[in-house]
Design brief:
It is built from 15 helices and eleven strands. The longest helix is centred in the middle third of the chain and has 22 residues. The N terminus is likely disordered. By secondary structure, the protein is an alpha+beta fold. A hairpin with a 5-residue loop joins strand 9 and strand 10. The strands form two sheets. Strands 1-4-5-11-10-9-6-8-7 form a nine-stranded mixed beta sheet, with helices on both faces. The protein folds into two domains: 62 residues, no CATH class; 310 residues, BirA Bifunctional Protein, domain 2, CATH 3.30.930.
């Protein structure tokens, strides 16, 4: 089980100051002082702390804090990957250079990321933790301008960016993951077209561009074998958690554990990964609580995935009905692209899907947002052809 750094920190501070004093300080700093006044106070505090530090303190912190270390990936290789991704996406997406910081709480409020895992600052902003949330809020700003002109504007905003992000959770034991990392992200923001038009169009677009990129990579000194695209509807997992009694906390702790199988824990003796949602056993199709999601996936197969299968016949397309990674993050449709390295290891390279962020930001249930992210640093460090390095 991963350590909860925030929980450990809370226990330490309470043991040193006492619970009553901690509660008093928290009440004072969160309810009685305005955010702007708190910023002023913290600036004074950190100014005094820095005044007590010296060169040795700075150097020691740099040497021992892993979040401060440079990436092991070669910058030239990362730039090469970014350049090609921008080229692949250039026909439909505008590339933007994002700020390294974002509004305080953006990832917690939109994507339900714990604020303990985000690097908050004393100035009521936070360091970039997810390229897609930053792209989403910029896309919402542009969509808002379109809606002022026409309340039913169908104009789609498509943006992409490459950004180094940082997360503060403990990644020990998760191969390939580090606290700060480079990710290429893309978002498509628009209005509901009906009949899954927005969803299917953008699913095809995003997946197709990443598969085109991987085809280029194969010719450019990278090896990504056995490419698998897994399509899911996260509402299946949400429904099963509501109806089977499996504890949500248990599932949330195991979203990155490949050995955890939701169907097994829910007493469903069927495979969660299938080639098509059109060939499912009665034990699934007979469940009325899953009927909406399974029907939805059949529409996705007919309107998007079937064509992708034909165009990319070297890629395996499956449906991961028991996917749990992304609960609370995606609204419904989501996908993952994974591939094997030259030595047989498998990593998730791309993750994407439909979110409700535009609905929240623009206060309209008609707004749609499809996002995706490619782990360029993960790819760079693990998929280079060892014979060409």
């Amino acid at each position: 089980m991963r350590k909860d750094r925030g929980g450990i920190s809370d226990l330490i501070i309470r043991s040193r100051l006492g619970s009553d004093q901690v509660d008093h300080l928290l009440a004072l700093m969160t309810r009685e002082i305005s955010p702007s006044d708190l910023t002023s106070l913290l600036l004074v505090v950190y100014n005094q702390i820095v005044g007590q530090r010296g060169v040795t303190d700075v150097f020691q912190q740099y040497c021992h804090d892993q979040t401060l270390q440079p990436s092991e990936a070669k910058q030239g290789s990362l730039m090469l990957l970014d350049q090609q991704l921008f080229r692949v996406f250039s026909d439909d997406f505008e590339a933007v250079d994002l700020s390294p910081v974002a509004p305080l709480g953006i990832n917690s409020i939109l994507a339900h990321t714990s604020q303990k895992n985000v690097l908050s600052t004393a100035r009521n902003i936070e360091v970039a933790a997810d390229v897609t949330t930053s792209l989403a809020i910029e896309a919402a700003r542009r969509r808002k301008a379109s809606l002022v002109v026409s309340a039913k504007s169908q104009r789609e905003i498509r943006l992409c960016a490459s950004q180094r992000s940082i997360r503060m959770q403990n990644f020990d034991g998760i191969p390939g993951f580090t606290n700060h990392f480079r990710v290429f992200g893309a978002v498509s923001a628009g209005r509901d077209r009906g009949h899954e038009g927005f969803e299917t169009s953008n699913l095809s677009k995003h997946i197709g561009y990443y598969l085109d990129f991987l085809a280029w990579a194969k010719e450019s000194g990278f090896v990504a074998d056995t490419i698998i695209v897994a399509i899911s509807d996260i509402r299946i997992a949400e429904t099963l958690l509501e109806t089977t009694g499996v504890e949500r906390a248990t599932v949330m702790r195991t979203t990155q554990d490949p050995d955890f199988q939701l169907f097994d824990h829910c007493g469903l003796e069927v495979k969660s990964k299938v080639r098509s949602p059109n060939c499912l056993p009665q034990s699934l199709t007979g469940r009325r609580d899953l009927e909406r999601s399974l029907s939805y996936l059949r529409q996705i197969e007919e309107k998007a995935v079937a064509e992708l299968r034909e165009k990319y016949d070297h890629v395996e397309f499956v449906y991961d009905l028991g996917r749990t990674a992304g609960i609370g993050y995606y609204e419904s449709l989501c996908f993952k692209i994974s591939a094997e390295t030259q030595d047989g290891r498998k990593f998730p390279l791309v993750d994407g899907g439909l979110t409700d962020w535009s609905k929240k930001l623009l206060a309209s249930h008609k707004e749609r947002l499809f996002i995706s992210g490619f782990g360029t640093e993960l790819f760079c460090k693990n998929y280079q052809d060892i014979d060409h390095v």
